[in-house]
Design brief:
- The chain is mainly beta and 190 residues long.
- Helices cover 13% and strands 42% of the residues.
- The strands form 4 sheets. Strands 1, 2, 3, 4, 6, 7 and 8 form a 7-stranded antiparallel sheet that branches. A 3-stranded mixed sheet has the order 5-9-14, with no helix packed on it. Strands 10-11 form a two-stranded antiparallel ribbon.
- It is globular and about 70 Å long.
- It starts with a strand and ends with a strand.
Length: 190
Amino acid sequence: MAFGKPSLKLPNIPSDAVVIVGQRNSYVLVEGGTRFNNLITRLDPRHISLTKGLDFYSANNDGSFTGELAFKYTKLKAEVTNEELNFFLQNGVKECTNHSESNLWAQSYCFDIPLKGHTYPAVSNQSSLKALSKAYPVTIYTNEQTTAYREGQSSSVENWCCFLSPPLLMWSPCHCKSSGKFLTDIKVYG
């Protein structure tokens, strides 16, 4: 839906944290948020495309997550400004123009931003926030290995669970019987 800074000081959250406001949850970025904010506010969103899905891993299924935001910024070569080029150099952005883009006289730059954060309930002031231009599905997943022994067996039976739901669902709980844990997919607008 939108992104910004927390309006209140949150315990154990750095002062430069960034909040991504989703429809049902908010995601507080404790690492990578400043770089994310810097790039998103300085670049024209019409030229940004994601190069990977927004799939984040929650090791303990406790609301904490890690992942990477990977996107590409593509413009016609003649339209790329010196200010943008200096910004890319200062932020360690890689040039990643493919053959097809080169034939169209376009130039692409790729960004990979490692993120860490925590999930919180939705903010109360959603209606006062300016929504961003496009909805992006976000998946938070976990996996757990369990070992079960059957009566009379000395070797174990291993069960792996990976929680992934179709990425276009707005709210879809997943349940893995062997772990008994729940996880959800949330659509975040960004």
